[in-house]
Amino acid sequence: MHTRRRIFARWLFPFCFLLLSAVVFAVVLYFLFLPGFSIRNVDYALPPWHFFAVVVVVAVIAAPLLLLPRGRRLAYAAMVSFCVFLVVALFWCRSHWAYDVRCYWAGVRASSQNGIWFSTYAGHAHILVDTYRFPSAAQGDFIERAMSGKKEAYVHTSVMPYTALGPASYAEHRAHFGLPLFHVASETQHDVWGISGLRHDRQTLRMPLYALAAPWLILPAVWLWRFIRQPLPLAGNLCTRCSYDLRAHTAGERCPECGTPITPRPEPVPRLPHSR
After folding, report:
1. Where are the domains of the chain?
2. Which of the ends of the chain has fewer CB neighbours closer than 10 A, N or C?
3. Omega of the bond prior to 180 within 30 degrees of 0, cis?
4. Backbone dihedral region of 2: left (phi > 0), alpha (psi from -120 to 50 degrees) or beta?
């Protein structure tokens, strides 16, 4: 029983605690602090170094995969994967009462502009990739007519609750976007916004949010399966400081987890025969 408690404290309890913290944080942040109770459209200008900031955040999240001991990398990856699953699940819950749109527009170049749309509604996700190509001489007209005068990169957010859009809005969105389960399309338009020579290419991907969330459960399932099947080490084979499994190491070495010297294991005391 003592060994089981140490294994629980070492692996399962921190994992559950971090997941519970992530759930509470996500719920409080997404449902209380983000606007969602009325129709709102907000644009956020991005600094020139926003791409570098994204790379830094991804590097910070991925760094433990290289710094942690090999035995704990799967647990960390499973934790991150499960947190992503929770975020997608929150989007799925929110999509049944509000139509959310998130859009990223890169800075306008000399003759092109790229944007990515991500929207959720009625249990589904809609991803759009827009590409505009225009003559260099028409850049000013494109910025004025299509981008409302915005030349730098920015993020557009839009929240439209179904109660504000009308009682039949949810049914319309579900009927219009709900089928088929997966939909991939591509279309091209010319001379959009009344600009001669402007070409608009759009790629569309539509899928149910549960299909987007399910793959993120693979790593947690693998970790849980390995955790259940892993045999519990004897108490004498654990590090006295961090409870690391030392069955593959001998006396005189150091614990690969915390560096504590490994002392010789005590010999098991033989049981005396039962006397009558």
Report:
1. 2-219
2. C
3. yes
4. alpha
DSSP state of 236: G
Cα 252 vs. chain centroid, distance in angstroms? Answer: 43
The whole-angstrom separation of Cα 132 and Cα 150 is 15
Task: Answer whether 106's CB lies under 8 Å from 116's CB.
Answer: no
HEC per residue, 96-108:
CCEEEEEEEECCC
Q: Which tokens hold the place of 223?
A: 């970790």
The stretch 191-216 carries a mean pLDDT of 88
pLDDT per position as a tens digit, 63-89: 888 887 776 788 888 888 888 888 888
| Token couple for 270 | 């033989």
Q: Average the pLDDT over each of 62-76, 157-171, 180-194, 233-247 and give the range with the smallest value.
A: 233-247
Amino acid at 128: L
Cα gap 94→228, rounded to integer Å: 34
Cβ neighbours for 266, distance < 8 A, ≥ 6 positions apart: 236
Per-residue pLDDT tens digits for 118-163: 988 888 888 999 999 998 888 888 888 888 888 888 888 888 877 7
**Eight-state DSSP code of residue 46:** -
CA distance 75 to 69: 11
Extract the runs of DSSP E, i.e. beta strands, from 122-263.
124-133, 154-161, 183-190, 199-208
For residues 101 and 157, the answer to whether their CB atoms sit within 8 Å is yes
235 vs 240, more confident: 240
Adjacent-strand bridge partners of 262: none
- List the structure tokens of 64: 């433990």
Hey, which bits of 46-111 come out as E strands? 98-105
Per the listing, tokens 């409080």 go with: 28
Residue reference for tokens 């557009």: 156
